[in-house]
Amino acid sequence: MTGPVSRRGLLGLAGAGAALAGAGAAAGYGVAREPVAAADDGVVAFRGVRQAGIVTPAQDRMHFVALDLTATDRGAVRDLLRRWTAAAERMTAGQDTADDGALPGNVYAVPADTGEAIGLAASRLTLTFGVGPSFLQKLGLADRRPAPLADLPAFQGDRLDPARTGGDLCLQACADDPQVAVHAVRNLVRAGFGVTEVRWSQLGFGRTSSTSTGQATARNLFGFKDGTNNLKAEEPDLLDQHVWVGDEGPEWLRGGSYLVARRIRMHIEPWDRSNLDEQQRIVGRTKGVGAPLSGSNEFDLADYAATDAAGPVIPDDAHIRLASAQANAGARILRRGYNFVDGSDGDGHLDAGLFFVAFVRDPQRGFVPIQRSLAKSDAMSEYLEHNGSAVFAVPPGLSGPDDYWGAALLA
Predict the structure, then answer these.
(1) Cα(387)–Cα(12) distance, rounded to whole angstroms?
(2) N or C: which end of the chain has fewer CB within 10 A?
(3) Low-confidence residues of the chain, pLDDT below 50?
(4) What DSSP designation does 71 have?
(5) Could you give the 3-state DSSP secondary structure of residue 330?
(6) Contacts of 387 (CB under 8 A, 6+ apart)
(7) Are 314 and 302 in contact (CB under 8 A)?
(8) What's residue 6's pLDDT?
(9) How does DSSP assign 182-233, residue by residue?
(10) What is the pTM of this model?
């Protein structure tokens, strides 16, 4: 490398074993495994069969951004995606975005890297890329759009804000250090000037789902364990069935997935005034250990046929009943959401809730039936407000040293 090397760059070099010269210079591409675990240096493999950040054990922080194209020249978009891939690969390895480090040798030059991650390790950073339905339309690629890549239908009770909905592209940054995640998105957005602009973004903390059997179930802002029955990285057959796009998809998407994002404001104050029994009956689980009301332990199978003198032990309008595979013709999704608190509104109530992210093989057949059922009958809906929504196609992982995000689609 030429020029100054930051401590972050040195950390990344120690983990990766060599400097990256560009999008295709990393070791480990073409590995026939999922990018699940991080090495001891906190580096999650960037290249592989799948994109990292899906079945990777969920990190503690997230910065999600949806962007719109401001240029529709395919060459310009292709060039940006190459540059994004190169920068993303460097940052996930714990390095700066440019070969010559975060700080230029000439103090009158504009730094290539914004610098707030200098001295920070990789922190299991993953960057996941997706395209929305409008991306293909704007670039004249409508004939390559698979049927499932379509805007979600309106759901009962939705109060969607157009400023928090849709997008041509998405970038999901997850890490155990919030500054590392923010740095990654900030620098990719900066690199996109002239080709893309931010449509909306969301910060998240405290994962609300476990994507590996090695993780304990986390809690949402209602205080309940969330995603107990989530699909896990260690269940490849179920992932093939419910998450990864198969031969039914176009070639550029096979082995990838679809990402559904929903910004769900949780009305914290009225929830906090409800008694414990009401909360537990709304959820269908105990608040302490997270057991279904029909069982004693968190991972006991819910018995939806169980009754007592008052009727069903797990109420008909309980959240877990309506979200279950049994109630939705076997449909399942891989959840990867995060809590958020974005200050308060003018009435002094917290603008807080769940930034719901899910990966699914077909959002129209997987996510949509579940959400329709919940929107219609879920007792929890009284305390929820869906005000943001988007769906993106997430291509498979990068297969070789010259591969970059979106290459097969734009070929």
Answers:
(1) 39
(2) C
(3) 1-7, 9-33
(4) -
(5) coil
(6) 159, 160, 161, 164, 263, 264, 265
(7) yes
(8) 42
(9) HHHHHHHHHHTTTTEEEEEEEEEEEESS--STTSPPPB-TTSSB--TT---T
(10) 0.90
